[in-house]
Write a structure and sequence with these properties.
The protein is α/β, with parallel strands linked by helices and about 260 residues long. The protein has a single domain, classed as 3-Layer(bba) Sandwich (Glucose Oxidase, domain 1), CATH 3.50.30.60. About 25% of the residues lie in helices and about 20% in strands. The strands form 4 sheets. The protein has an 8-stranded mixed beta sheet with strand order 3-15-14-7-8-9-12-6. Strands 1-2-13 form a 3-stranded mixed beta sheet, with helices on one face. It has a two-stranded antiparallel ribbon with strand order 4-5. The radius of gyration is 17 Å and the shape is globular. The mean pLDDT is about 95. InterPro entries: Carboxypeptidase_A_C_sf, Class_I_gatase-like, LdcA_N, Peptidase_S66_N, Peptidase_S66C, S66_fam. Belongs to the peptidase S66 family. This is Muramoyltetrapeptide carboxypeptidase LdcA involved in peptidoglycan recycling. One of its GO terms (molecular function) is carboxypeptidase activity.
Length: about 260
C-alpha cells in the first residue's frame, strides 16, 4: 500500500482502524509526512512500515523518479535485508505548480550540497527506528496517541524531518525540548535528521537549514549531550528521498560514516 500524498488530519482516522483485521492481514505501507500517524500506529502493533515513497511526490516527480529515491524504494519493496543509504551531494526543495502542464516536461534543477553532517561520530549506534515528521510527532504527543512510555524507546534510533510548512528553529527547539522533558530524547542511541526544506510557494528562507540544525543541537546538548546525530539525511520533504523502515533496524556507523537500514 502506497500513500498518494500526506495531509493534516490522519490523526482523526486512527480511532476507526480495525486492529484485529489489520494485524491479521499485514501489508507493507509506504508514506511520509502526515502518514507518520499510521506508520507509528502500525509499529506499535508489530508491523514495520516505510517512511517515504508517496505517489504524487516521488512517483510523479517531473521527468523521472530520482535515481537515489528509486534505488531506495526498490530495495524496500523487493530486497529484504540490509541496505546502505546513499549520501546525496545535490538536492532540490523548490516546488513547481502541479496545475501547470509544463511542470512535468523536465526534471527539477538540483543544487549542490555538502552531504551528511556528522555530530559526535566516534562510535556505532544501532537500534529499532522510531520517528517521522516532527510536527506530526508533536501532535501525537499533544493528543496522547501512539506515544509510549519513554523506557519503551531505550536504545532505539530516532529519525525526524520537517514539512513544507517549515516550522521555525524556535518551534523545532521547543518540540524537542518537550520531548526531552517527557524523557524521550535521553533514550535514543542515535538520531537522523532530514534535510530541512527551506522553500515553499509562500515562504522562502535560505538560512532555515542552518538555524534548524542549531536548534536540534541546542536541545540535545541540554537533554542528551552524548547522542550521535547525522544531519541532512534525505529522508523527508526534499528531493531525493530515501526510504526509512519504521520499526526496522538502523545502524549508524560513525567511524565509517555509513547508515544502513534493515527491514
Amino acid at each position: 500500500m502506497i500513500a498518494t500524498i500526506g495531509g493534516d488530519d490522519q490523526i482523526t482516522v486512527l480511532p476507526h482502524l480495525d486492529t484485529e483485521l489489520i494485524t491479521a492481514n499485514p501489508k507493507p505501507f509506504f508514506g511520509h509526512s502526515d502518514n507518520t500517524n499510521l506508520l507509528l500506529w502500525l509499529r506499535n502493533r508489530g508491523i514495520v512500515g516505510f517512511s517515504g515513497g508517496s505517489v504524487m511526490v516521488h512517483f510523479g516527480r517531473p521527468g523521472a523518479m530520482h535515481p537515489t529515491s528509486a534505488g531506495s524504494l526498490k530495495a524496500a519493496l523487493f530486497t529484504p535485508g540490509p541496505y546502505r543509504l546513499t549520501e546525496s551531494f545535490a538536492y532540490g526543495d523548490k516546488d513547481l505548480p502541479w496545475e501547470e502542464p509544463g511542470t512535468f516536461d523536465t526534471e527539477p534543477v538540483l543544487e549542490a550540497s555538502g552531504g551528511w553532517i556528522w555530530h559526535q561520530p566516534d562510535h556505532v549506534a544501532e537500534g529499532r527506528s522510531w520517528g517521522g515528521n516532527l510536527e506530526i510527532l508533536s501532535w501525537l504527543m499533544m493528543a496522547d496517541k501512539e506515544i509510549k512510555a519513554p523506557e519503551h524507546y531505550e536504545g532505539d534510533i530516532l529519525f525526524f524531518e520537517t514539512s513544507e510548512e517549515m516550522p521555525t528553529d524556535v518551534e523545532v527547539y521547543r518540540i524537542l525540548r518537550n520531548m526531552g522533558e517527557r524523557g524521550l530524547l535521553q533514550r535514543f542511541a542515535g538520531v537522523l535528521v532530514g534535510r530541512a526544506k527551506s522553500w515553499f510557494f509562500t515562504n522562502q528562507d535560505t538560512d532555515r537549514a542552518t538555524a534548524q540544525r542549531q536548534a536540534v543541537l541546542k536541545a540535545f546538548a541540554e537533554y542528551a549531550p552524548d547522542t550521535m546525530i547525522v544531519f541532512d539525511v534525505d529522508l523527508g520533504h526534499t528531493d531525493p528521498q530515501v526510504i526509512i523502515p519504521v520499526g526496522g533496524t538502523i545502524r549508524i556507523d560513525g567511524p565509517q560514516r555509513t547508515i544502513t537500514v534493515t527491514c
